[in-house]
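Proteins fold reproducibly. Take a sample protein:
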Amino acid sequence: MPRTFYLVLAVQFISTLADNALLIVAIARVMELGSPGWIIPVIKISFTLFYVVLAPLAGPLADAFPKGRVMLAANFLKLCAICAMVVGVDPALAIAVAGLGAAIYAPAKYGLITELLPSSDLVRANGFFESVTVCAVIFGTALGGLLVSPLMPNWVLPTGLADTPANTSALLAGMLAVVGMNALATLMSVAVADSGARYLQHTLHPVDLFRRFCHENMILWRDPLGGLSMTVTTLLWGVGATLQLIVLRWANEALGFTLTQAAYLQGVTALGVIVGAILASRFVRLDQATALLPVGILIGLLVPVMLVIQSTSMAVVLLVAVGVLAGFFVVPMNAMLQHRGCHLLTAGRSIAVQGFNENGGMLLMLACYALGTASGTSLGVLVWTLGGLVAVGMSGIYVTHQRGIAGHCLPKSS
């Protein structure tokens, strides 16, 4: 692996660490302000929104400049967003601006991987990338729990610096810690080398961008393996984002955990994903990805088991098992989608199409969860609905593939 790849991994770790800590801190800030419960999924929605809205622009933007420079600008934008929350900007608005930076950042970081490495190394590279990302999710979620705990010092901003009650927030020290992490990620992005890849420049006119993006979507969806992997990752990304919030609520209602304790439990799932990602990177070739479709069905069947669990130890076992299966399944699927996307389009554009669909699925499912929470739907109904969606959806994908509708063979990777 080239040296730049490992630097991108390091930037990804710090940036993802900060993003996940920020989510917990923002949720705690919403609770501190006394906002209604449905605002919590709105926080997640606001972070995801620009992934969908800016998708036609994000890919061409990532391809128009050296991707290291795009990563630098995106991380700086996230840094500004968190600083805004420190001085009293509404958490949902600050998170939305951070999501804008993340939406610009995603095509650059994933596109750079496809530019640096041959297709035969993509599963291995994605295993590394997924492991580092999930490690950051674990530590970031746990760190977020620490940052909102009573262990943090009770700092205040100097008089007059903030015009809102933020200068008396008990979360100030935690918010400043997230600022420091994003500042580090921004500085590290300066050193990311240019891969040397260049693409034909196209117009940035909004109408032309939209038409081209729709065409690029159709190219990837109509490709047998591209469409198959896009369907799988879109479904699982939507479910994963919703499950993240459900675990927090379940830990509170079923196990009596505080937000800090629930954040630690949430990180256990990510620990399992690391194990699954490592196993996939070692034992699964790119041409074997479609053979793992039944694993997706099993994930859906395991989700409702949480409703009968009443002990912390059993909760840990279940969440680790779900994480291992998810990591083992998603890493090869993601690698296959990147391989097809880079072959059919360009690195940045294919990642933008992938991000649009996956984050669109997240927005849809988070919106449904927010509506369910606002209407008083019980946790049991939400969990059964989520598990059933995964099991039935993956079963349909598996049957369709077995019938040969999505039949296609990749050459074996060395």
The chain has 14 helices and no strands. Residues 239 and 386 are 7 Å apart (CA to CA).
